[in-house]
Amino acid sequence: MSLLLVNTSFSDEDYVNKPLLDEITQKYKIFAKKRFHFLQETLNSVKDKSDLEKLEAVNTFFNDVRYSSDIKIYKMRDYWATPWEFLGKDMGDCEDYVISKYFALKYLGIDYKKLFFTYVRSTKFKEPHMVLTYFETPRSEPLILDNNNHKIFSASKRKDLTPIYNFNGDVLNQIGKDSKKSHKKWDQLKLNMQRKKI
Amino acid sequence: MTLFKQIALILSLFLLIILTTVLILNFQSANKGVQDRLYEDAKNTATSLSLSLGSANGDLSMMSTMINANFDSGNYRNITLIDVDNITLYDRTIEGDITAIPKWFFKATKIEAPIASANVSAGWSQVGILKVQSDATYAYKQLYAILIDLLISFGVIALLGLIIINLLIHAILKPLKEVQKQASAIMRNEFIIQGEIPYTKEFKDVVLGMNNMVSKVKAMFDKGNEELKMHKELEYIDQNTALKNRQYLIDRLPEYLKIDASSKGGINIIVALSGMIEANEKLGHQDVDKLFIEIANILRSSSKIFKNSIVARINGTEFSLLLPDCTNEEGLELAKNIYDYVTKIIKDCGLNKDETFISLGLYAYIHTDTIAQLFSNSDNALAQAKFNKNNIHLVKTENTNEVMGKEAWKKIINQALFKNRFSFVSWSVINTKAKKLEHHVLSINLTLDKSTSYSYAQFMAPAIQAGLSSNIYTNVVSMLFKTPTMISSSSTYSLRLPYEYLDMKETYEEIRELLKNKALPFKLIIEMPDKLVRKDSQHIKLYKDLFQKYDIEIGIFEFIGESDDYQYLQELRPAYIKAESSYFMSQSAQSLSALRLITDSISISLIAVGVVDIETVDALEKKGIHIIQGLATELIEV
């Protein structure tokens, strides 16, 4: 399948509905509301575009968010923030970028089976890291959406990253009888999103 | 079903439902816990194994070896590796069923070991998905052990709970038990006053109400008792000499003059004082009264040696001494002694013994005499005595020509005893007011063969003479209890048992044994003589308890109300009191009313026996006696 093909399973609803946006505005004030407006505008602008354009738009939009560790933001060693917390606070760590990009791309109608959360080792920073990988087909070389390197590259061009482990919570949810369980962090994130944690 | 049982049942059910619900919830929670555990184990394995598989760089043989190592060392039902196109690359599944637990438990408990999965990748590319399912055998074992533990602990809790409920209800309803006892006692006409007043308001009100009612009834009984005692003194006692009077003698005579009297005869002496006008003139009324008292004392002490004797003042100047089992010789000697004593007293008073003297008319009565015969023969003897030199005369009973001699009777009765030739006949006891049958009175016939049959009146006297009456009753009572079907009715029957028979120690044992063996198909009332029951002895208590146990009622016969205290009626609580119709007829309105007060307060019926005609029925009805026995019952339509 070509990257230029248009996906038509895009939702008519806003990425963040009004009541939730009101709550976010109340908590994170007016600039947060503006950020979500920009996000919606960005998403709307590529909704009829190809997967690659969608990847570019989403990757660019979210990579503008400031990086900050979980300890600083949430007083926790490792916390997977919901897309609303991430953009509301306008800061987050590598997992938070991946989560927000993943759900935004899902919103734009990209098949979730093509998207993977990938645990990698950054040889540059000598530390664990996470990126979002996009597989056009299951056997094709993935594209890497990284918050350190803002440009999207194919995996073979990212020599600075050593892949360790791929996972997609939604895929795993499909397999087990209990769709609420697949991966501890993912399960908690899904629960937080259900509860509209902002 | 009692209130206690109902409450206990409801609370027990409630407890069991709660416990069962808790047990089920506990078990379900344990089940869920076990399943969660299974998933977590599977998930941990899937994650760690998938990471390990990533290092195999997609080499299937390497990945298979890793899967085998994991599968063989852990408790897994299945580990499957599928590629990105959903094709199985490698699969390991456990063989065989779970045998460590009972089959029923396995069927009843569905443990679905959840499948945990993890993505497998090799470098940047995907290999596929690893699925891991834990083996549920251990979970089944664990769950079965939990179930057994739960059942044991809940069993213990249920048992303790039921015991506690039982004790609690007992404690709460204890006053009700007492209330029930009191209510049952009231139904049995017993006067029980509840001492402990319950704390629970409703019970308290009931107990106080019943206490109040029982007190009133008891007071009514006591009042009747006192009044009857007072009237008895007025009606039966001669105020001057404190001897019994003519009325008393007449009321008591039926007991002595009857077919099955305990004594077959004796002597009746009429002692008459002559010359009392002269004595009054010489001594004055007061001293003459004293003289009478002294004479009364002599008569009383002279007759003491004869059991069941009656000394009565029958009018101003005459006394009667009824001496059962007294021979002619003993009678004459006694008369002579009395004559001598009294003559001495008369002399000591300074009276002329030719003017003031006593005459003694002796009549040798037999138990088959009527009251009229006894009085006329005694008067006749007295008239003769007044003309005799020694002022004493004996009139002997005319020898009635017996159809059969004593020996012949003895033979017949022994034969009947040996061959069980006695049978029952019954007479009706009728309520003239309600026009209904009260009960049947059983009587005995002796039927030697088809052509020879004797009634009770014919054979009982010779039987008593031959000393066989108790044997007959033993035979008859045994027959009644062993073959009750010979009485073809399911109504109420009464059987009169004589004093001598009931008084024998072995009788009680015999009846007790007979009652053990067979239930009667009809309601039985055993009639006992008033003379026996008013003793209120331990013996009577035994009978009462025995009959109460087998739902047999007691009736009293030959009642003449001569007890010093009627408390025994309250103790015995007979179904009815039977007295001669003449007794009821001769009672004053006050006396009867006092008797009624007693009997009504403890639900005892009054029955007149020997009622022969409609005139007597009417007279009795006027006196408030409506239940009758005797020939007149045939004249009343029921």
UniProtKB/TrEMBL annotation, chain B:
Residues 170-222 form the HAMP domain. NCBIfam families: GGDEF. Keywords: Membrane, Transmembrane, Transmembrane helix. Pfam families: EAL, GGDEF, LapD_MoxY_N. PROSITE patterns: EAL (PS50883), GGDEF (PS50887), HAMP (PS50885). Residues 264-397 form the GGDEF domain. The chain crosses the membrane at residues 6-27, 143-173. InterPro entries: Cyclic-di-GMP_PDE-like, EAL_dom, EAL_sf, GGDEF_dom, HAMP_dom, LapD_MoxY_N, LapD_MoxY_peri_C, Nucleotide_cyclase. This is Diguanylate cyclase. GO terms for biological process: signal transduction. One of its GO terms (molecular function) is cyclic-guanylate-specific phosphodiesterase activity. Residues 406-638 form the EAL domain. GO terms for cellular component: membrane. It comes from the Bacteria.
